[in-house]
Structure to design on (289 residues):
């Protein structure tokens, strides 16, 4: 906790945050010494993630979870929780069949790794940068891109003023006809879900946007955000490498559904079906007790 956070906690939370941090730390560093007595790996790591969430953003990366196991064998596995170089808890050797907690712990480790990456580039995940990337996908001609920037907030280019969309002189563009003007948009294949072609055409025709700024922000920090999907891809592959087909288990998807990423969750970002039998859990942050 920083100085301002400590002062705020003392005078406005009556020390509630500090008390919660102390309680979680004791539960991790002295497991079983008090309440609660649940020492399953999933619960222990969830507490660690909650403790990490209390830390100021610049310190969260020093909270690390390490795994020791042989993915090709059936030897005992273990996990280690650290803050910097300080070891909080080292689990004893665990049976790999222990209710398959290995899959859940691997899932939470991947969530922590994804959170670290997002923290590193948080300054790039702004609406302005997102709009810039959308415009670069929407139009190929520099002159059209300049015009899009100039008329972003002009209601004349809102959905209610769109008369229709036609094909351009060649297959490389489509033309959106507004009441007083027309805009030529890129019609090239969106190989990586770029905002052009059929995706852009559908958005132009079906989205209720008051101006082009609102149109460009459709999908920002959601599962449709191309940058988020790009960042999530290696973490999805890492999780599959860890646990294979167990990624589809309800317990794993439930954990992923409780890990927020912008306006979406890791479950949706990994293109997994959210668990539909535990909606209340999906609304709680991963690690909440």
């Amino acid at each position: 906790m920083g100085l301002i956070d400590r002062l705020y906690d003392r005078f406005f939370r009556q020390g509630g945050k500090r008390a919660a941090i102390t309680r979680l730390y004791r539960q991790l560093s002295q497991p079983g010494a008090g309440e609660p007595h649940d020492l399953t790996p999933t619960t222990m790591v969830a507490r660690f993630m909650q403790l990490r969430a209390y830390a100021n953003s610049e310190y969260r990366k020093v909270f690390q979870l390490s795994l020791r196991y042989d993915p090709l064998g059936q030897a005992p596995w273990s996990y280690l929780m650290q803050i910097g170089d300080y070891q909080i808890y080292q689990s004893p050797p665990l049976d790999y069949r222990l209710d398959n907690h290995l899959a859940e712990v691997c899932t939470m480790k991947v969530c922590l790794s994804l959170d670290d990456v997002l923290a590193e580039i948080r300054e790039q995940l702004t609406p302005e940068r997102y709009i810039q990337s959308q415009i670069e996908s929407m139009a190929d001609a520099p002159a059209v891109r300049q015009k899009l920037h100039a008329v972003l907030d002009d209601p004349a280019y809102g959905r209610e003023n769109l008369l229709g969309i036609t094909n351009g002189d060649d297959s490389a563009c489509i033309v959106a006809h507004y009441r007083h003007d027309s805009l030529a948009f890129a019609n090239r294949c969106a190989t990586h879900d770029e905002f052009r072609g059929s995706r852009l055409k559908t958005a132009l025709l079906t989205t209720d946007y008051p101006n082009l700024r609102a149109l460009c922000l459709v999908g920002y920090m959601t599962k449709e955000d191309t940058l988020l999907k790009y960042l999530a891809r290696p973490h999805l592959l890492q999780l599959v490498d860890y646990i294979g087909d167990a990624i589809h288990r309800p317990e794993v998807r439930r954990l992923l559904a409780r890990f927020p990423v912008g306006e979406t969750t890791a479950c949706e970002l990994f293109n997994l079906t959210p668990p539909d039998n535990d909606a209340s859990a999906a609304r709680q942050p991963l690690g909440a007790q």
The chain has twelve helices and eight strands. Residues 101-120 form the longest helix (20 residues).
